[in-house]
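seq as requested:
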Amino acid sequence: MKALVPAQRAGWHRLLSMRVLVPLLLLAYACFFGLYTLRRDMAHSEQQVEEHVREDVTLRMTHLQGTLEYLLRTGQLEAVREELADLGSSPDLTVALLLDDQRNVLASTRLALLGHPVWEAWPELIRPGALAHMKAARVRMSGDVRVSEDGSRVEGYYPIQLGSESQGSRVGILYLQHDLSQLKAAQRYRAERSALRSSLLLVLIAGVLGLFFHFSLGRRVRRLESVARQLAAGELNARAGLRGVDELGTLGRAFDEMAERLSQDQEALRRSEASFRTLIERTPDAIFVHRQRTLLFTNPAAVALLGYEREEELRGRPVEELLMPGEQDPLAETSMPGSAREVRFRHREGQQVLGEVVTFSIPFDGHMAVVSIARDVTERKQVQEKLRTTDRMVSLGTLAAGVAHELNNPISYVLSNLRYAVDELGEAGEAGKPLSAEQSQEIQQALREALEGGERMRNIVHDLRSFSRREDENFGAVDIHAVLDSCASLARTTIRHRAQLVKEYGEVPRVLANESRLGQLFLNLLVNAGQAIPEGDAKGHCVRVTTARAEAGWVVVSVQDTGVGIPPENLQRLFKPFFTTKPVGVGTGLGLSICHGIVTAMGGRIEVSSEVGKGTTFRVFIPTAEKGEQAASGAKSA
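struct tokens:
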């Protein structure tokens, strides 16, 4: 029994070969085509019969309508009955009835029905559908010829005027019923004969093709099959070598061309893989491939970034072990196109390494994985920190003279009031007389003015300390109006000789930012706005600071000046480092570049619009504290 199984399988395989399968498929197609053609032709023939009979009945009833109405108007009822009785000679006409307005039979092809009500003479006409058709014919005063729902007959309903207009409007119904069964049977017979002839022709063609495939194409097809198996086994040097100008010869040559192309593509793929591996291994950016937060692959740059010696030391480790505490999510999140996130990596020795990371998904070893490409920006961040400090010192230098003047005024009247109080108290003490009420009030007023001057100096020193202290990386809820007031106090001396400072604060929530960085940002913008306005007409110019809510979760701060404006060709380069439109020695070209970096680091954006001769407007969009808390909670829950 076991020896018979391979023979049975080989027999089934022979049945599935092309030389057997194609004729079998053609035979099956012949049967299917015959049945389909029969069904289609029958349906088409029946439809033609229905259309022809319906047109014939329509013409007949239209003719009868005019004839019967004329005979009825002239009172020739017998002639009407003879006219309908003559229709009975048609073998396919089932019945013809003329009903009066009371639904009694006035005339018919069957004399036995005369005078009977319709429910006795022809019960079919009291069905709801027939009643609806008769009613519609009376209302529209036009005929209706239609095929019944089962397709066995054609029915016509035509309105007939039963008398002259002087006798009143009496409308009857002419009803004709034409049988379709015999006509459809004849058409069906003709369709069956046509389908049988087509099927026999296809069977003959299938037999001829079977013989052709068996004797002519079998050997060449088996040759193609053998070469295909060799190619599938990796023998890319196998070729079919078929000749001829027929389809199989063309297929054989195409097969050989495909095999040659596969061989070339495999070699190109091997070279591409080698080049790609070299690119991955020699790129200076660290590459981490991980799936389900477990490392699968790292390149040498990633190994060096984290202070390890071999890639095997990192493979299989959880991603969390590579990051500083609080950095569990960035490597698993897909980055937006063109954007990178800062991630704090943990070096093997424990120190922090700052990297800019781009993350995306790719197939790796047949399954989707996450690729994180990191660039070490630790030194760049240190340089940026030095640049920010330098810019802050430059701004302080710019404001130094004005701040000294601001401090000098309150110091002068503080000292003057204190000397007055000391002199008055000294004179009273030497004279041994108590102070009069008027002297006490004057001394108290002098001391209050001295106290106000001291408060003024303390506020100026506080603003300077807030601006000049070393910034940290902590972000929190910041009162944007307090920061703007502090920056306005420091920039007042730069602006007041050039323009009026106008504040238009709206009701805005706290923002998520670093207070020191925010102060540096707005002080730069205010100083630039003041320097953009020439001296000499302070009342004719203004620097306007406005705050408002932007779209949901954002606050916008606008700093607008009425200065000289910025040419359009410079707007695109405005935030690039070391680009400045100020004279030599006035600016470093770092202020706006640092402003852009500060806003971006806080998750916001800065926009500028300007018109030469009319002024410039900077708009800073900062996320609210509530928006930042929602984003942080969403990242933790993810």
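The longest strand covers residues 352-364.
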